[in-house]
Design goal:
The complex is a heterodimer of chains A (157) and B (187).
Chain A lengths: L1 H9 L9 H15 E3 L6 E2 L4 E2 L3 E2 L6 E9 L1 H7 L4 E4 L2 E3 L4 H10 L10 E6 L5 H13 L4 E5 L1 E2 L5
Chain B lengths: L1 H10 L8 H15 E3 L3 E6 L18 E6 L5 E3 L2 E3 L1 H13 L15 E6 L5 H27 L8 H10 L4 E3 L12
Parallel strand pairs in B: 3-6, 6-7
Antiparallel strand pairs in B: 3-4, 4-5
Helix pairs in contact in B: 3-4
The chains are: A alpha/beta (157), B alpha/beta (187).
Amino acid sequence: MSKFSKKRGSSSPGISTASLPDIVFMLLFFFMVVTVIRENELKVDVTIPMASELRKLENKSLTTYMFIGKPMRRYQGQYGDAPQLQLNDKFANKNQIPFFLEEKKLKVEERLRDKMITSLRIDNDVTMGFVTDVKTELRKAEQLRVNYAATQGDVVK
Amino acid sequence: MSLRGNKKERMSTEINAGSMADIAFLLLIFFLVTTTINSEKGLPVKLPPWSDEEVDPTQLNTRNVYSVLVNLNNDLLVRNEPMDIADLRENAKEFIMNPTGREDLAESPKKAIISLKNDRGTRYETYLQVYNELKGAYNEIWETESQRKYNASYDDLPIPQKKEIQKVIPLIISEAEPVDVAGGGGN
């Protein structure tokens, strides 16, 4: 009996941190799996609308992104606050779309080219005139598979 | 005594894992900063090929055309009647299937065409909501059809059977070039 109490008194066991790396690694792997590496630095503000009939984009390597929205505040001095199109990392003009698409096409294997999808990430407040012009360019370039990016949600409350 | 001490020293030669947590945290923070949460979802649409001559849906039998107009103020005009977006889905379903065989609705689901027209000044959000509702109407119809025919959910059907359903009830949304009313927001 006395032996036990003596032992307890003399040693002060600290909390073992040996399992901490395991926990952190678990978190790390979780985040590595559910996230994607950011490819484009966004220069326009894009709040995508809500919709309910969504499909997941299957193949990331076949997806081309286009962003339309108001330039972010720090670019507004240079580009104004009218909606702008962003391709890759740059603000672009509508006329640059065919070239941009062609560039993307070259990076994809030939047999997969007709499976390419253009994902349009467009801000809620953009007017349809702009969107239609972009769509027209896509149709002219024969990029007909389009995906309007949206978040899951009920349109009608 | 000295022997005992020696033993203890030998026992405690493990790698110190205390800094492991720091390394893992560093990696974790790196990934948190450089990545985005996967939110790659969207409304898939197949655009019509470009041609200079526009197909004029007004030449078709008007009873088969479900015209949806969205104006500058994001109001809907469906078959010449103002409508709330909340009623669009049910109304479109009724038009396509025409369960009571009404004279003024589509002859058959196969012949039904949806004509969507918007103003250049229409907000994208409204446009997408309208598109979503129309697509939702078709999805619901396909779902009931699939339940009736195959007793299975449409999403679980193999592709040939999906095609079979889509052949009977094709999704045709014709989008006319937007009109520019009073130069509304055409940028």
